[in-house]
Amino acid sequence: MKKKVFIDGSEGTTGLRIFERFAERDDIELLKISSELRKDPEEIKKFINASDITFLCLPDAAAREAVAMVENENVRIIDTSTAHRTEAGWAYGYPELSAAHRENIKNGKRVAVPGCHATGFITLVYPLVAGGIMPSSYPVTSFSLTGYSGGGKKMIAAYESDNRNAELDSPREYALGQTHKHLKEMKKITGLDREPLFSPIVSDYYSGMVVSVPVYADMLNGTQTPESIHKYFEEYYTGEQFIKVMPFGKETDYGGFLGGNGCSGWDGMEIYVTGNQDRILLSARFDNLGKGASGAAIQCMNIMLGCYEAKGLNL
After folding, report:
1. How far apart are CA 95 and CA 75, in angstroms?
2. Residues involved in catalysis
3. What phi, psi does 44 have (nearest 5°)?
4. Per the confidence metrics, is the pTM higher than 0.90?
């Protein structure tokens, strides 16, 4: 029997990408709300409660309102907003972090999909803290380069306008007040004692991102080198088809550069470990619209339905 799926917020960037990914699936029946009623609370409530799984691709406040509409105890929610990522009772939708995370997604009725910047950051930091390599008190810093699609329809329109501001021709640092909405999950999910110093940068290309975390080797536990950290990541993510730890030294194939759009259109993630004996640089490269958003949401749904984890995804 086909599973009934409703996308609340199907006209946003993430919602549209989720919708598109169902085009070739024969195990899903999409419940489609008429465009003139897509903001009608009663109509939304009806569709949510008629579904097996509802995706929420909404602003935080609207996502909370949608969850409050659930009356059918069998409805399962996958929320792509920031609203529930650190809330009790919600599974954090990153199965590769641990067997417990994957099991919580499989059995959960409420799953919160990670933020795009947070996905890269947590991929790099969570294993180190969990394995006792990075102290939870480590003063972590991170920077992230992303394409403009991560800013949603308004930013996409600004970048693609014929009369756009000249500043958009260059990379732009933002979230200068250290209040980025992903900071809360970056801290809680990794187990850090405090939020990292985080500097995201948006640039003039559509999709893809590189999230990097530099660390001092002598501030980690044990004797750590780029080679030892690389080996640790290889072992930690063994068997995970969505995460590819790149061969040590692979960055030389790109002339020592990592382009932010190198994984655009792909639903997996690449991990690079570079640096030297004193300072180690950890980098995660992926598509902010793939593993960083709609791809991760579909992966969670596949786990919840007990089907092939990469079904309908591009690996």
Report:
1. 21
2. 116
3. -60, -45
4. yes
